Amino acid sequence: MKRPGSIPFPILRVLEAALLLVSAIFLILHAFHLSADFPNHSPWMDWAKYTDEGWYGDAAIRHFLRGHWYVPGDFNPAAALPIWPLLEAALFRFTGVSLTAARGLTVAIFGLILAASYLLLRRWQNLTAPAGHKPTTTLAPAIAVLLLAVSPFCYVFTRMAILEPLLILLTLLALLAASYAGLQPESLPTNLRTRLHQAIPIVSLGLLLPLMVLTKTTAIFLLPSVAWILWARAGYRIRPFLRLILPAAALAAITWIAYYAFIVRPHFLDDYHYLFSANAYTGITPATALSVLGDTITDGLWIGNILYPLALLAIFSAFLLRPRLLRNPLIPALLLWAAGYAAFLAYHNNLQPRYYLVLAIPLTLLIPVVFSTLWTLPQPNSEPLSALRRLGTVSIVAVLAVLTVTDARQTLHYVRTPDYTFTSAAAQIRKIVSADHTHNPLILSISGSNLSLMTGLPSICDDFGTMDLAVRVKAYHPGWYVAWNQVDDDKMDALTPTYHLQRVAAFPAMDDPERNLLILYRLDPATPGTPPRRHRKPVIPRLLQTSFGQQPSSLQLEH
Predict the structure, then answer these.
(1) Segment 519-540, tens digit of pLDDT
(2) Could you tell me if residue 58 is inside a domain?
(3) How far is CA 112 from CA 103, 126, 149, 170, in A?
(4) What is the tens place of the pLDDT at every residue in 71-126?
(5) What integer pLDDT is reported at residue 10 of this predicted model?
(6) Are residues 403 and 426 located together in one domain of the fold?
(7) Is residue 53 one of the residues assigned to a domain?
(8) Contact 380/151 with Cβ under 8 angstroms?
(9) Beta strand pairing status for 443-444 and 499-512?
(10) Could you tell me if 401 and 426 lie in one domain?
(11) Residue 233 is assigned to a structural domain of this protein
(12) pTM for the complete prediction?
């Protein structure tokens, strides 16, 4: 019998299909203008748009451009974070190295994020249905997918070839795998098929967890969310929970330890440690604790001026207004996801907009899950919805409609008005460098890896690396230096003993006042009368000829 006040099933199906169709259209729009700039003059000033797409895919870029992925003394994050460059390398084998291919991969991952979000919400809708009752069909999964698909915040950051989208996808898959974990009652006989059915989710978890950490080490802050789902699947009992989590944890630990013991420790230990030391320049302190916590919370508005307060209202409702909502294990799991990553943001105290993408997903999913549960809670004696609940339902639906329209409008604006300042500047740099046959085409720049991704020119980083910059310059003999707006004093000190910087061209690019002019310098020998170095391969340590080997002693780079 249909509950009074509920929407008929056929209408629900039509509405769900319409919401998913709109979501699919906006997902397709993500694939337009893939080589365009990160939207200029947006609310999100994140320096990752100058560097990170190249840095974290550098191993794949170098593998195809140079024949080897590892450059001793330079910045080699793939030693600690190998999963994303491996995926890019698999793609580049078919497409070649290109910015469009890398970003296309991220858009495909976002599509999988939408699918995994839908399946996760639908899965827990079925699991939380009362015994003997058909699961109640709601629009919560479709609404969640729509909110993510039209979000301008998700649009700009899921079109960048960075680590966060892949981390989100792996986390959603881990939550899905955990939702299928379970134990057969001991009183029932087990056969091979039953054991395989029980083992597949655990084995999947055991592989997904190290993949998460090897994608981005901050994944450890998301593990409590996965553990909660296992705790719920174990019936909130300790012994069944241990029987579920210990095999998955053991497989995950063995996988990660094997990678560290056989690959990192004997070959890339300095690069592995350097990645963490290079990011240790910020952090929360007792003196800054209150201000950092306040900034961590208020900066959540980057996710959306309507969506973020609505998500906070959903959290407030779950905790205070309807404690029974927490009986749905997905709600505490999403809360732990958001709280865990927010704790990392506060601890690290480097509040960049891209980090909030990992928060945006669980907060967005919470909105339809919590509010749909509120307006579908059963009424005593099957009475129609009370006037107060009808008012609350209408209000939430109205806010969701406004949120969807405003977000869709902003996303469509970004789709219709692409800029190509960075890629245009990169193309002109490539033309100049390729036309000069007297200087080494190797580029030195903090954005060098991004330029390599866009142009195919080889590069090394002028900011990060296990070898001191002055030593690296003498070892690799770059022929060109690319700076943003000016040459910093420490870079000039490293270059002037060897080179004279000759400004060749400057190109307006991007929108940050501190980084909106890309300047190309030719590096001429500093000694008067010395002819320019003829084009040849860089003089590099012998180690560069192989992927593995003993790395030369490194010098700590000051930041």
Answers:
(1) 999 999 987 555 544 434 443 3
(2) no
(3) 14, 21, 12, 10
(4) 999 999 999 999 999 999 999 999 999 999 999 999 999 999 999 999 999 998 77
(5) 79
(6) no
(7) no
(8) no
(9) unpaired
(10) no
(11) yes
(12) 0.90
